[in-house]
Amino acid sequence: MGLSRKEQVFLALLGASGVSGLTALILLLVEATSVLLPTDIKFGIVFDAGSSHTSLFLYQWLANKENGTGVVSQALACQVEGPGISSYTSNAAQAGESLQGCLEEALVLIPEAQHRKTPTFLGATAGMRLLSRKNSSQARDIFAAVTQVLGRSPVDFWGAELLAGQAEGAFGWITVNYGLGTLVKYSFTGEWIQPPEEMLVGALDMGGASTQITFVPGGPILDKSTQADFRLYGSDYSVYTHSYLCFGRDQMLSRLLVGLVQSRPAALLRHPCYLSGYQTTLALGPLYESPCVHATPPLSLPQNLTVEGTGNPGACVSAIRELFNFSSCQGQEDCAFDGVYQPPLRGQFYAFSNFYYTFHFLNLTSRQPLSTVNATIWEFCQRPWKLVEASYPGQDRWLRDYCASGLYILTLLHEGYGFSEETWPSLEFRKQAGGVDIGWTLGYMLNLTGMIPADAPAQWRAESYGVWVAKVVFMVLALVAVVGAALVQLFWLQD
Ligand SMILES: *[C@@H]1O[C@H](CO)[C@@H](O)[C@H](O)[C@H]1NC(C)=O
Ligand SMILES: *[C@@H]1O[C@H](CO)[C@@H](O)[C@H](O)[C@H]1NC(C)=O
Ligand SMILES: *[C@@H]1O[C@H](CO)[C@@H](O)[C@H](O)[C@H]1NC(C)=O
Ligand SMILES: *[C@@H]1O[C@H](CO)[C@@H](O)[C@H](O)[C@H]1NC(C)=O
Ligand SMILES: *[C@@H]1O[C@H](CO)[C@@H](O)[C@H](O)[C@H]1NC(C)=O
Ligand SMILES: *[C@@H]1O[C@H](CO)[C@@H](O)[C@H](O)[C@H]1NC(C)=O
Ligand SMILES: *[C@@H]1O[C@H](CO)[C@@H](O)[C@H](O)[C@H]1NC(C)=O
User: Fold this and answer.
1) How confident is the model at residue 462 (pLDDT cuts 50, 70, 90)?
2) In ligand 3, which atom is closest to the CA atom of 281?
3) Residue nearest atom 13 in ligand 5 by C-alpha distance
4) What share of the chain is helix, strand, coil (3-state, %, to 5)?
5) Could you say which of 155, 359, 395, 442 is the most buried, measured as most Cβ atoms within 10 Å of its Cβ?
6) What is the C-alpha separation between 87 and 136, in angstroms, rounded?
7) Which loops or segments lie on the Cytoplasmic side of the membrane, by the record?
8) Residue 215 has what pLDDT?
9) What residues does each domain of the chain span?
10) How confident is the prediction for the chain on average, in pLDDT?
């Protein structure tokens, strides 16, 4: 046996083309990598001081691609141990100390020479908004404590501030659209282009104490107090945004409990949103301390109530509806609930934070229709507590609340914001967009550091990731073509 001389030559050619093609590919990769990874990476840190906890986000980008051409990525997301800073009313200093652990974790990832050049921000949201209403001197003490700790850490600390609900909504919207590349995009032809406005997505955020809805409506925004304007990459955007204080998940759960206690005061509270067979003791005092609760505990009640789950989704939905004032919108056009103006919904929406966490647990993040979502949550609410508890042994402190928060989200989106069976498919439940966690923090940092310029960049023609990918793809195609041609030739001869 043996190959003919012709076949040997062809095999040799084939091998050679394969090897040289591969070499070219490797060279291209090495060259491109050295272009894409210059030594100077910049960093930025944002603390998201929410009502239930604080998170640290570390972002990084290339120093030579500032002013809009850079792509910011997330290098670290760290959950601060302990509760939100607004809980440290009796020991403000500890609120500052609690941030140390995550900060140290972030500093490990940043070269020491750059520590002092790393812009660091702390933004507080609805938890502190509520506290400063209730007792502004306590809120001031807490801000002073976190400012002191971050001010003496080896970073470039820009300050701690209370974010208004509108800013929280707007920055969440910027984060989503920046992550998705719907504000500006690098095209295959090597130009920066502006995607059509229909590509912009709305943002639905739900924290512990407040919830935000932000989108670009199709028509004018009639209530100017709900309008936020900004200029990004040379385009003007007018978004509708509203933040509902006391409609975050945790405050909603407290208000729900109080509503049930008030409507039927008794030492044994039967809770329709807790699964049947669930039982616990509830201390009444702390429940009524929330600034979102405007009632006093019935005098006839003991300090501690026994709470029993009944797993009744119908009764649960009725109790949840009591948290909304739908009648205040009756007869008014473009009104959501509690008398709040809302223009007609438009386009795609990303629902994140507690929207995502709740629906992720319930396996409802894969674009199920509204009827399936409803049926799934109702089915979950009717499961016996014993079975559910056994499936998730001690791993989830929110386990008893998923029925309530699932039905709450459904009520808010469907009856509150007005998503119907037809518009429900425009909702995506997501945690991330373009590799970054969705929240207000990235949009906030981009804005404060001026990394999204108001004007369109003049010369945006640097090597981009998209072009690099295209090059690789074309090289691979070329390689495949060469090999294919050689193979055809080879088999053709053997015929
Ligand atoms: C970005 O813009 C600022 C001022 O707008 C300028 O000082 C800086 O040099 C610019 N950076 C780059 C890399 O072009
Ligand atoms: C606010 O808190 C401080 C200290 O905890 C307390 O002395 C003060 O009475 C509180 N003020 C109000 C209005 O509750
Ligand atoms: C209420 O419950 C707490 C523990 O949850 C307990 O420390 C307290 O003594 C109880 N109070 C009364 C009046 O039973
Ligand atoms: C609902 O809003 C209307 C109009 O703002 C008000 O008159 C009514 O008292 C509210 N209902 C409740 C239950 O708060
Ligand atoms: C979600 O799906 C997983 C895997 O299919 C399953 O184990 C889990 O029980 C489901 N969760 C709920 C709440 O039904
Ligand atoms: C959810 O399902 C229940 C029971 O099947 C039904 O009564 C209710 O109207 C449904 N809700 C929605 C929003 O479809
Ligand atoms: C971004 O920051 C500038 C000041 O640097 C401010 O005027 C502007 O309103 C901010 N944008 C948004 C959306 O808040």
Assistant:
1) very low
2) 5
3) 362
4) 45, 20, 35
5) 442
6) 14
7) 1-8, 493-495
8) 98
9) 5-36+473-491, 41-246+434-451, 249-429
10) 89
